[in-house]
Design goal:
Layout (H helix, E strand, L loop, with lengths): L3 E5 L5 H8 L10 H4 L4 H4 L8 E8 L2 E9 L3 E7 L8 H14 L5 E6 L4 H6 L3 E2 L4 E3 L2 E9 L7
Parallel strand pairs: 4-5
Antiparallel strand pairs: 1-2, 2-3, 3-4, 5-8, 6-8, 7-8
Length: 153
């Protein structure tokens, strides 16, 4: 297995980030207008949002994955090029992202999953908490991972 390096993303990475996301857009997008949100010019706006923490995963200095969360604990992006699936790289990325999120000491981690990624998130301990939803021009299944037991009163 090649060594994966994960680092904070910069605005200079948006072309590579868009290229990683592009093959997966059809799994979530319901309108052409929303498809534009995943293009480099729109992705640049992410870097102006103080609550969004964005990272890229590199192998041999090539960006092969990207991951992001909205503080304190909502996973926003989690993408890995298909040719790296099933080799442990996705798990490496998830472990990194979860550790970053845990620095905020949340009770839960939330994510809006595509059908495509549903089983992956279940493997990471997420549970479905709602029906297939269409909102903001995308379709998703709301999921969460409880980190602390709910207070019983």
């Amino acid at each position: 297995m090649l060594i994966m390096k994960i680092r904070p993303a910069t605005v200079d990475d948006v072309e590579a980030i868009a290229a990683v996301i592009e093959p997966f857009v059809d799994y979530v997008v319901v309108t052409e207008e929303v498809r534009e949100r995943f293009k480099p010019d729109m992705l640049k706006n992410i870097f102006q949002q103080p609550l969004i923490h964005y990272f890229v995963a590199e192998i041999n200095e090539e960006i092969v994955g990207n991951l992001a969360y909205i503080a304190p604990s909502h996973v926003m992006h989690y993408f890995l090029k298909a040719e790296y699936h099933g080799q442990g790289y996705g798990r490496q990325m998830w472990d990194f992202l979860e550790q970053e999120i845990l620095k905020n000491d949340p009770d839960i981690i939330t994510i809006n999953s595509s059908h495509y990624a549903l089983d992956i998130y279940k493997k990471y301990g997420f549970e479905v908490v709602g029906a297939l939803t269409e909102k903001w021009g995308i379709q998703f299944i709301p999921m969460q991972k409880l980190l602390k037991p709910k207070n019983l009163e």
